[in-house]
Design goal:
- The protein is mostly beta strands and 272 residues long.
- The chain has a domain of 188 residues.
- The protein is built from four helices and 16 strands.
- The strands form two sheets. Strands 1, 2, 3, 4, 5, 6, 7, 8, 9, 10, 11 and 12 form a twelve-stranded mixed sheet that branches.
- The longest helix is centred in the N-terminal third of the chain and has 10 residues.
- The radius of gyration is 20 Å and the shape is globular.
- The N terminus is likely disordered.
Length: 272
């Protein structure tokens, strides 16, 4: 079975190079490092992950497919913390998707800590403020798997100011889910579950709390193209706690109209 890997790391910086110090003092918040402008700190973190950037030894990783191409994809910095992404593929020109594995990294003591899991086809979407935090969430999409009947998912990394590190935001609900379904690849998931998902999602202040939420509408469609279910859900943070809110009644019309704003073509939006 193929394994692709990208590493996402978080770095705590004490003796930063002057260029990084200037960048941080000017923004006072999270920023993605520019490898062409923030050369010193970028190279510092790259050196710290020299082992993670080495190609796999095919003999040592059997029966897993060796990942022979690896590079740092992104590094995001907040104060003394950085979020770093290391890309892994089977080969440089591999047609298969990439996989991302998050890490926390402390520049003060060089400690590295891997997240419990990684993400197939990770794609950054935007910085989102779900709550009154000094650091916005890093929202992203990914797939439950590649080369299979995968689900398209939405998630985010949040900074825990108490622990001083990044983690995957959990929304509660079933098994304290960290993933929000936003679609699938149109394949049958299993004989027991032969439905597919067609969804729309959007960030916005849908609850009136002054911060952004995520509104998602999903149609579950069976193999006869019949709509099995039609759900609209808001994911929000209220009083520091995640909330999963099923939208019903008169609010459905308003939320669905907002979801369709700017959408050119979708089964979920009326034809114009």
């Amino acid at each position: 079975m193929r394994r692709n890997l990208i590493v996402v790391c978080l770095a705590l910086a004490a003796p930063w190079p002057l260029s990084a110090q200037s960048a941080e003092s000017s923004t006072r918040g999270f920023k993605w490092l520019d490898p062409g402008k923030d050369v010193a700190i970028f190279e510092q973190i790259k050196a710290a992950f020299s082992e993670e950037l080495k190609p796999d030894d095919p003999e040592k990783v059997k029966p897993v497919v060796a990942q022979l191409y690896k590079k740092i994809s992104r590094i995001g910095v907040y104060q003394s913390s950085a979020l770093v992404l290391i890309l892994e593929r089977e080969t440089l020109g591999s047609p298969y998707g990439d996989y991302f594995q998050p890490f926390n990294y402390d520049l003060k003591n060089g400690k590295k800590q891997a997240f419990e899991r990684g993400f197939d086809l990770w794609r950054f979407k935007k910085l989102v403020r779900f709550e009154a935090s000094a650091v916005p969430d890093v929202a992203f999409t990914y797939w439950s798997c590649t080369e299979c009947e995968g689900e398209h998912l939405l998630g985010s990394f949040r900074f825990d100011p108490t622990a001083g590190k990044w983690e995957v935001r959990r929304w509660g609900g079933h098994d304290n889910d960290e993933a929000i379904i936003i679609g699938d690849n149109g394949k049958v998931l299993s004989e027991e579950d032969d439905t597919n998902f067609d969804c729309l999602y959007k960030f916005g202040d849908f609850t009136g709390g002054g911060f952004e939420d995520v509104a998602v509408r999903c149609l579950a469609i069976d193999q006869s193209n019949r709509i099995v279910s039609d759900t609209t859900t808001i994911y929000a943070v209220q009083h520091g706690q995640p909330q999963v809110i099923a939208v019903k009644g008169l609010q459905l019309v308003t939320i669905r109209e907002k979801l369709c704003t700017g959408v050119k073509k979708s089964k979920l939006c009326p034809s114009k």
